[in-house]
Amino acid sequence: MMRLRLARLLLSDMELLRAQGVSTWRKSYDQAVTLVNQANMALAAREAGLPHAEALMVQAELQLADPTETKDLRPRLKKVEKHLLSAEELAVRFHAEATPRDLDPRVVTPTARLLARVRCQLAEVQLAAAEERERLAAADRERARPKFPKFRGRDAHVVVDFIDETGGGPPPPPGLEPEDSALVAASGAAALVGSAPRDRARALLVAGRCLLFKFLTRVPPPLHPLRPFVPPAPPAPPPTASSTSAAEAASVGGSAAAGAGADGGSRDTPDIMGGGSATPDSSAGAGPPPLPSASASLASIAVTPPPGAYPISPFSTHTDIASHASAAAAAAAAAAAAADAAAASEEGAAALHLQAEAAATLAAALEAAVSVQDWPLAEQAAFELARCYGQQAPATACRSLVLAQACRAAAAGQALLRAAAPPQQPEVLMLAQRDALAASLPTPADNVHYAALRRVLCGLRGAVSRLDVAAAPPVERQLAVLPPDLRVLCLYFSPDGTQLFAAALNIPDPVASAQQMHLQQQASSDKSRKKLDPAGASATSLPKLSLVTRVDCDIGTVEALSAEFRSYRRGVERQIRESIASAAARGVGMTEQEEKRPVGPTKKDKRQGSQSRRPGSKQGGGRGGTNAGGSSAGTQSGQAAPPDSPSRLEIFDPRINAEWARLMDQLEAWFSPLFPWLEAALPPLPRLPAISQDGKRAAGGGGGAGAGGGKSEGGGGGSKGDKGLPVGPPKHKVVLLLDPVFDGLPLEALPHLVATCGSVARAPSLQALAACHTPASVATGAAASAADSHPSPSVPASPGGGLGGLGPDPAFPGGPFSFSGPPPPLPPLDLGRMTTILDPRHECSSPAQARGPYMSPLIPAMSSSELLSALPAAGWWSGFSGEPGRAASADTYAGLLSSATGLLFLGVGRFAAHVPPAVLAAADLTGCDAALLFDRCNTDAAFWAQLYRDNRKSAEQRRLEAPSKVATLLLARGVRTVVVTAAAAPPAVTVRLMTGVVAGLASGKSVGEAVYGMLTGGQLDEFELAHLKANLQVWGAPGMLGQVLTQGGKGGKGGGGGGKGGGQGATAGSKK
């Protein structure tokens, strides 16, 4: 047995060395094979049954992992199947001898679990053989054809087709097909361990994959769920006055017939569009959802001709658009008729029956896997369920994909929590105990200790409860919590990394919305219906559309592209420092006072920096104090060229921007197969009609990134002479649900997103996004409900109905996440009570440290006139400011985070290099609404000091300080919105980004609109570096608004150190 364990270790070592590119990886594999062969011979000589069976299973794993490349895997799979059949024979014999006849069927013995494992592995090998047969079917037919002599002037194509039609291929081999044998083995394994959820989930997953394989190989093309994506048809334009008058003239004398025809059309419309709507599933938990009819499913995804067949330009006339819409409707009707004909055939009916069986089996596997927190197994089941539905039921397929991504995010989040948190943290210890019990016990739900651990973890409302998919609300309720205008785009790689799936949810259906608006207009124009309740139409949910597509793509290409962006970010940080230092040495962009100033800090600077003062006080202002330093930050070359200046400094190498442009071109080329899906999910919106000056306030009050306050593009603030000018189009609000492999890609800089979106945010999963939008009272009730009913969670079989429904709670009728009206708004971010961490080591806050172009002192920037004029409440903020020669302890940061309702960091280096990830992982941040992290600017001295500290950290510790890891950790600890800096920037740019985002929040914009408007609105055009326009990322809820709730004086809350008089803390704290 020791040899078997050593062989497994060598196999994992071989995979690790091969991934790292070490040339000696083959030696580990050869050693593992030798050890397993020796163990097999020794165990066979001693007739050790069960250990021999395990040795045969390990030998099969090694043969499957053989790195030797071959064109046909069937001979290798045949050898593996032979070993597994021998192991199954041994396991069956010992299981029959060791199982009493009067044993309770609910008891699962170790021999039964071993036999189930052997059969599951055997079924996987047989299914792989069937897939290999289908992959090489064309080559097999070509090889089986007789040789045809080649003659001049004669074509062999006719003879080959004749042989294929008449010959029918070679006779099938005797016995069952490989997929049927795999289905029998997997079904037997599931029946054998029916009371063990983890083993049963694994067996049901293999059985569901076998049924899905049979369905995909037998389904007619019109019903295939993996057919190519076709964008939905554009909505028909509203009728013009001339067409309305002509229709009225033509309908004279036939009003009764026309009315009957209109009634018939209105009855058919909901049936056509209902299949693609995202309405809540009332039959959640009642078994697998019924498959929609062929015509309804095809019409629900608006089957239309390929993109470009009916181009619609902004200059198209009403007749052109109507003809295009009618042509698309005719194509959809023809496709629906073909699907109905295929479904009515005997072959189609049999295929749909297989699809229903596969969906039910995979849903049962998903329920069993989630109940024991086996996230990789649950992810695989949800992914296969999405493949089962595909384009035939896009709404259910999209929900299955986001569920699979939630399971992947849960596994990654728990691994991140274990790596970042201290080993003695109680939550991490309980998580390790829960996972160990779930892995070792056949029925963990019957264990008292396991049930107690789950109740405690749910009651803590910590990171583990937020990452528990079983305790989460159903997917439909998660979507109901989100704002109606927030579109969700999901990018998910298949578990094997060969296919990329893209899903779009919460997309308004333009056709159904237009029809609903038309019906509402007719109802409002009818005099007999004027007394109806006007809230009835607004309370009804607008029709939603779900779009899903699939692209064959290798995850290695994305990893390589991410590696290139990572190399660029590392190089640009060094080039920024060196260019600024070189320009400062040459005196470029520096005033006479800066040239005469000594390079090192003087005693006066050190004494001034060490003084503690209240934020916003006048201490040190004037005569070279902090106010003077803050004003110099705006007059130095940090604002090297004001917007009205004809020239700007150019101190950076032009090759930096050329390299960024080359990488962005690669990103767009890689993303190009998804452009039809992206354009369908985010269509360009038409321009609104021109309005007068009196209507500007009402039209621009809500405001997007280009439509909300200020003088930004499309905003409502203009001059007196702009009456009648057209208002900018309202832009989309988007959240990207991304796999961890996409963390290093600047997807926010894609041209289509820049042109059509006013807010772009990220989230690890839909579950995390819904948790950010859930009110605190509702989350508390949901956690209490989950803790009370957690011993046996019931997971509905349909992902459309959601996962993790734990039964109704009396405190929340319809479930804790159910709302009768619109979703509750997010709590506002209190701009009068922000906790600041400013330059913790005082490395770029004195004039001597911020010497050179694009440099700006950080701590004096918080008292600059630009910031205080945009938000006077910034003078009340309190927190921690760095002092020369001192470093704050972890307890200091933990105390700041414990009472923070909003966090703002402005400093050099990485945020997590100052505030350790262990502090973040152990802090309770449920009271912190937003964290604005403006970091990653550097100076030469700060860089070398940080490099000295980094050399004393492991590679894993440095990876925890990445922006995506920090954002994921903060969201898991309870923060609703996180803004992180993606790449290095000069200090002056960092100050400009901070000031612009805070000013945007003060003007009434949301966090997402303020950040994305700052990046794309032209405020950064004066700087040279092109990557700055994708330098900020928003994670979590992008719709959080800022509001001054806490009124304070110059003494601010917490005093930040307080001057003379003792800083008496916060004042009355009145609420608006």
TrEMBL record:
Swiss-Prot/TrEMBL keywords: Coiled coil, Signal
UniProt superkingdom: Eukaryota
Record's compositionally biased regions (Gly residues): 618-632, 698-719, 1048-1066
InterPro entries: CFAP46
Coiled-coil ranges from the UniProt annotation: 115-142
Region entry Disordered, spans: 230-296, 515-538, 583-650, 692-727, 783-824, 1046-1072
Biased composition (Pro residues): 230-240
Biased composition (Polar residues): 515-525
Name of the featured protein: Uncharacterized protein
Source species of the chain: Astrephomene gubernaculifera
Lineage, uppermost ranks: Eukaryota, Viridiplantae, Chlorophyta, core chlorophytes, Chlorophyceae
